[in-house]
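Mods, move this if it's the wrong board.
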Amino acid sequence: MLLKDFGSYYDGFDDNGKHYPGYTELIGQLTAKFPLGQPVTGEHNQKEFIALFGSILRIRNILTAFDDFEGKEILPQRDLQDYQSAYLDLYQELRRGRQADKENINDDIIFEIELIRQVEVNIDYILMLVARYHQSNCEDKDILASIGKAVDSSLRLRSKKELIERFIETVNADTKVVEDWRDFVVKQKASDLDAIIAEENLKADETRRFVDNALRDGVLKTTGTDIDRILPPVSRFGGGNRAAKKQGVIERLMAFFEKYFGLA
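Not the wrong board. Structure tokens:
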């Protein structure tokens, strides 16, 4: 398909008797049908919102290739992040119990997750904002709001939200943001893993090795002998509870993995 001009994508166009809405029309539909501050409830409304915001993500992806788009985004960045947060809320809600990372949740519901990943912020950006907050003597609450919106609108950073918030609570006049963040992550990671090992009666050395390998390889393997090796002896389960115990351990380790993966 040939790339059309900026105006066609921004204002829409007609072709063979069919109207193709442009960015301005789609944004108008979004703000009229789904005003910020109101939850998207009901299956029909959720499907419509997912389809509409997905269309906006796709057309924004094209428009960003045009210099003319700068300054014509219509939606303020914070509003876009709020809509994206709602979009990701639905994505995570609908994918529970389904194949992880699957973008096609149902036959008629497709999430544009890859487009979100292309533009979402990373932890370095968040630390830059934390540094600005530190420079304001920890008084600029607007920066804190920006951090919260950026994290909520990022699929990768959502699982790290509590960690980021707890670090911000420790920031004071003496904080060296990047260095202290690294130390904070190391200590919290060790503390969180120790708690899982103790509470689930896991084999300590095997569990640490298992988790280190997962963080190194970028995947937590939930099948095979490696996961079985970290579990306590069968007698500890009291009969036929091994499968339930194993699933509970997997869920806790998966949450741990998502929280700390990608953090040096």
